Structures are given as structure tokens and as C-alpha cells.
Amino acid sequence: MEYLFKRFAKYYDLIYQIKDYKKETDFLLRLIKKNGIKGKEILEVGCGTGNHAVILQKKGFRITGVDLNKEMLAVARKKTKKIRLDQGDMRNFRLKKKFDIVLCLFSTICYNLSYRQMEKTIRNFHRHLKKGGLMIFDMGFNRERFNQKSHAYVNSQSNKEVDIVRFSKSIRKGNYAFLDMAYILFKNKKFHFGSEVHKLGIFDTLKIKRIAEKIGFDVKLYEYSGKPWTKKSKQYVVFAGVKR
Length: 244
What we know:
The protein is of the alpha/beta class. The chain has helices at residues 3-7, 12-15, 21-34, 51-58, 70-79, 115-127, 205-215; strands spanning 41-45, 62-67, 84-87, 99-104, 129-139, 150-158, 163-173, 176-187, 190-201, 217-222, 237-243. It contains seven helices and eleven strands. It has a seven-stranded mixed beta sheet, with helices on both faces. The protein is globular and about 55 Å long.
């Protein structure tokens, strides 16, 4: 992750400007309302550059963000001074407070590489939630959705400062997805090149649901459209779990 999350961290938002953060946040707000959550304290794990967090803060929530990467947090800090941001690993960070809602979005949870790591992460979410609080996380790398051997994608974006092209290819090898990415960045009449490989775990959706239920959550599964998730769904699966 040397390039996008470090060297090119300040261009992350440009690369992902096609992502509809507002639409996703609107769905999160509907889930929060649906589950009767009245509290305003949100912990976002894997907050990245803070795009969801900034929208939620403007909606009246008090946000704490945690991310492993300090370069991404530096970008987030430039957007707002109203959000607490801490560096930490989703499996073992410790904050001295409990929250009404814990979020972990954009398949961040799939950086766990085993069911053991996944269970450790969900237990940590449980530890930081108040009783009756809501955990929401999504997975794009579940077995039901990510069943092809490989997928290639090209994305290009520009602003007044730079032009950037990203080439990516995702390959499934057993229980893992490998995302090979290459970047060409044109700035100040010069080309800059970078590459990176991300390794993510591929998990069985219903097995993760059972793990969360064993830990102490009542879990329902959704698509971002709001429809219930089924094994035939080709969309991200969204886990909504209320702490018992």
C-alpha cells in the first residue's frame, strides 16, 4: 500500500470522486433511524480521508475516526477540525469511551485475512458500543459476490493540479483477493509512476453473520439499495448488528 495510501494519499479523493458518499450516507441514516438509535456518538473505523465522517458530522453527529494510515488521517484533518481522528488497527485499538454507532465501510473489514482476525475485529467493535448500539459494516469481497477469477478496471481523473490514471486488476486466489494497481500521475509537466498490491480476505457472508451473532449482535443483511441481501445478490453486503 506504499503509493495510494502514502505517496499518493492526497490524491485518494480525486481517484474515488466517482464514489457516491452522500448516497451511501443517506442509506446509513435510514438504517440508524430504522434501528431506533437516538444517540449521536459515532465511531468510524477505517475512516480514511473522512468523506463519510464529514457528511455525518454536518448531520449533527459527533464523530471519532480511527485509521491505520497516518497519511490518510492527515488528509482528513485538513477537511475539518470538528472530528477526533486517531491512528489505530481495527483489531486492537482501544478508546476510553463507548459509542452509539460503529461504522466500518468500503470493504475495509476485508483487510482481515482470516476468520480469526475477523472475529477479533468484530469483538473490538462490540467492546466500543453501548448496549443497544448499532454496528454497520460492508463487504465487497464476500464469496457470493467475488466469484470470478479476475476483473480488470481503468479509471482516470483530473483536476487543475494533476491528471491521474489508475489501472487495477483483482485476482482471486483461494480465500484471498489480490488487487494489483498501477498509477500514472502527470504533474508539473512530469510523469510519476507507482504500483501497489492489496491483499484482502474473501469470506462467507453467513459465516460472518454467525460470528457476529455469537459475539452478541442481532444481525440483518442488506444491499445499499435497502433491499434485503440474499445469496444471489451481486452488490455489497451491508451488516447491521444491534448489540444485545
